[in-house]
Design a protein that fits this description.
- The protein has one domain.
- It is built from 15 helices and no strands.
- It starts with 6 loop residues before the first helix and ends with a helix.
- The C terminus is likely disordered.
- With 295 residues, the chain is an all-alpha fold.
- Helix 2 crosses helix 3.
Length: 295
């Protein structure tokens, strides 16, 4: 039985630049809610293979000691401006909070650019490999325009002028910056164990580790110091993900969006305030958060 597919039709009628947020909303929360979430998880995971980024996370101690909470913070902040738009009241508050958290540290602009590039590129890469349909040209361009605009609101400089130029930057950055470090390994292991905790009880997680490794390319695995799994396991894991996409293709279209902000988050069982996401700051930051919610 063939089901009518209207979401992609809606996307194709929109303008990728003017309607960037609406296209992402339809794509990520109707057609690809699971895939987009996994793509963003692995986008962040890739950034931890860069010693300057993992080193900062390791220095604060927050990511090792409170991995689940820091993961929930990041996911919810991003979801606020993807779901509501970066010009919405909640979206501007979320971007303001992200800026406040990042400005506590000296972070090179190049590292900001790389993290931003993973959000532009990884959704398309993941969905083209494992989604029930390919990422459309409208979705690809909308993703670029959306994150370019978010980057500007975060005061990130020298954002490449096109999707293709950003992809070239991403590939070259990984080629020159992916290398093993102990901080990569510690942050990578903490993140891997968090992923496994979502699906497996603690006694079985060691059996799941090779499956996580099987989803990584060689430069990423080597930067974390993770062992290379057998080729057969890599083919099996990736084959199962592609098979999932084929099964989803046979399902009827999702009628209601699956919003990340409505999902259960272990760190915030009773809900959350945007200004309280992230590690607690100075007294001055807390006062400013309470006084102003602008972007």
């Amino acid at each position: 039985m063939r089901f009518q597919r209207t979401i992609l039709q809606q996307i194709q009628r929109l303008d990728p630049e003017k309607d960037d947020q609406r296209i992402l909303f339809l794509s990520w929360y109707h057609d690809f809610p699971w895939d987009s979430r996994k793509a963003l998880e692995f986008a962040l995971f890739r950034t931890y293979a860069v010693p300057s980024i993992s080193g900062l996370l390791d220095t604060t101690g927050e990511f090792i000691q409170r991995t689940q909470r820091r993961y929930d913070d990041t996911e919810l902040l991003i979801a606020e401006f993807v779901e509501n738009g970066y010009h919405s009241e909640r979206g501007r508050r979320a971007i303001r909070r992200m800026n406040q958290l990042h400005h506590r540290f000296h972070i090179p602009n190049e590292d900001y650019l790389y993290v931003l590039s993973t959000f532009v590129l990884e959704p398309r890469r993941w969905i083209d490999r494992f989604g029930w349909r390919p990422y459309s040209e409208h979705e690809r361009l909308a993703t670029w325009f959306f994150w370019r605009n978010v980057g500007r609101m975060m005061n990130i400089r020298d954002i490449p002028s096109s999707y293709e130029a950003f992809e070239r930057f991403n590939v070259e950055y990984e080629r020159t910056h992916f290398r093993y470090s102990e901080t990569n390994r510690r942050i990578g292991e903490a993140t891997r164990e968090l992923f496994l905790s979502l699906y497996l009880p603690r006694p079985l997680r060691r059996l799941g580790r090779p499956a996580i490794h099987a989803m990584m390319d060689d430069p990423l695995r080597e930067a974390f110091g993770f062992p290379r799994p057998p080729d057969a396991l890599q083919r099996s894991v990736q084959g199962l993900l592609r098979a999932r996409g084929l099964v989803i293709r046979a399902f009827p279209e999702r009628r209601h969006p699956k919003l990340v902000t409505r999902l259960h988050h272990k760190s915030y069982p009773d809900g959350y305030d945007i200004e309280q996401l992230g590690p607690p700051g100075t007294q001055r930051e807390r006062v400013n958060s309470g006084q102003s919610h602008g972007g």
